[in-house]
Amino acid sequence: MLTGFAELDDLIAEDEWVEFYSEDSDLLEEFYSRVIALSSNPFIKVLVVSERGGLDPWKVRTFQRAFGVEGRVLVRRAFKAEDVPPSVIAMGEGDLVVINPYGFFRLYSHIVGSMRARRGRTFVFSPFDRERRGSVFGLHSAHSVIEVRRTYRGVRFRVVKSPSHAEVELVYPIQSLFGRSSVGLEAWL
Asked: The pTM is what?
């Protein structure tokens, strides 16, 4: 799986479990839609936890077209906290994206246990401040934990926890999130 940001992908290349979090749910949705689209060749498994929202298939398809990726997105939903662990297990081996696994704010040990037991790479996206809420066991279990935050004209990734790097901040222009790069004075227009 990849994020499409070369430096960030290099930082997390060896990690099996990476958690991204942000209090800006719109930014997080854009980011995980991008990650799903880029990782969908030939397919990517996605577990959406909650009753409403969570994944906009048209947004994912738009990112696939923008980046020239052909692939499938296999989606499973978990509507209750009790559904999350068996859903993680049912997704089997291979790469998995889990959106908001701690959203019900309970059954943390079962949810984390199911993600720890799986084989394959796991990206977790949490729409709240993971340093204050959610599973502490999950924070310790994840190999890397990365905060995603909107800046004045960009997106900042702050590596909160990593086994191989100290705290690092990477900042990208906001248009790079959508696969566009500015040329010359375009950023000032």
From this structure: 0.91
Contacting residues for 163 by C-beta, under 8 A, at least 6 apart: 15, 143, 144
Tokens 């709240």 belong to residue: 128
Task: Answer whether 100's CB lies under 8 Å from 133's CB.
Answer: no
- Quick one: tokens of 65? 């077209």
pLDDT tens per residue, the chain (189 residues)? 789 999 999 999 999 999 999 999 999 999 999 999 999 999 999 999 986 667 999 999 999 999 999 999 999 999 999 999 999 999 999 999 999 999 898 999 999 999 999 999 999 999 988 888 877 777 788 999 999 999 988 999 999 988 777 888 999 998 888 887 655 555 554
